[in-house]
Write a structure and sequence with these properties.
It is built from 11 helices and 6 strands. It is of the alpha+beta class. Helix 1 packs antiparallel against helix 6 and helix 5 crosses helix 8. This is DUF4253 domain-containing protein.
Length: 229
């Protein structure tokens, strides 16, 4: 991965890198400032370990089966009430949303907006599709939950295909995606909410409310954020 030494000053540069992806084969990710490392003069990209690159394994992994394995019904204080209408069994994958916006254009716009709001370095990763960035790098951001980085990219591929969800931000233990085709009603977003919870339990348990309330926030939502701290 090539990484800029300084934060991006021009929001349009991210959009330009996205627009050039088909020609360059380099997907741009925004790398946020992380005060946990800055205080010690560290850079997690170079000072922390990585897993073995696993992009070659992503295509053989079933996203639905992976999320079913990661589904943990024991997060609610009193049984599975917070997961209603689901419980101990993962409900399966949400249906594909109709794509009305170009996912790459959406990613370029989302990234440029983020650059205006906060400092990000630019990373360029040689991949065939954005979802493969974690597996290509051997990213360890989800290591407290799983060391299956190829499975992480398999889920991201599935979201790319079904929702036009595209990786934009790569942090030490966080990912952010732009979403070109979010679910448009509560019933579809409820199944997607279960996927989110299986993928990153911390992202779900870190917010108040039930799965139904979390799902309501996914309707028409064009920006997803996950963390594994």
């Amino acid at each position: 991965m090539w990484v800029s030494g300084d934060p991006l000053a021009d929001p349009g540069l991210y959009r330009a890198c996205v627009a050039g992806f088909d020609r360059s084969g380099l997907w741009p990710v925004l790398i946020p400032h992380d005060p946990r490392f800055a205080a010690n003069g560290e850079d997690w990209l170079t000072d922390r370990g990585r897993l073995a690159p696993a992009a070659h394994r992503v295509g053989n992994i079933d996203a639905g089966a992976t999320l079913a394995r990661w589904w943990d019904p024991f997060c609610c204080p009193n049984g599975t009430g917070c997961l209603r209408p689901y419980g101990a069994t993962f409900p399966g994958l949400a249906k594909k949303s109709q794509l009305r916006v170009d996912p790459l254009a959406e990613a370029g716009n989302t990234g440029s907006i983020l650059v205006r709001r906060a400092p990000y370095r630019l990373g360029l990763v040689p991949v065939e599709r954005p979802a493969d960035v974690p597996a290509t790098l051997g990213w360890t951001g989800m290591i407290k939950s799983t060391d299956e980085v190829a499975a992480v990219s398999a889920v991201l591929r599935s979201w790319e295909d079904r929702f036009g969800a595209t990786l934009v931000v790569l942090g030490f233990d966080e990912l952010e995606l732009s979403v070109a085709a979010p679910p448009r009603n509560q019933s579809r977003s409820l199944v997607l909410a279960a996927e989110h919870r299986a993928f990153s339990l911390r992202s779900f348990s870190g917010q108040p409310g039930t799965l139904r309330e979390y799902a309501a926030g996914l309707v028409h939502r064009r920006h997803w954020r996950f963390s594994w701290d």
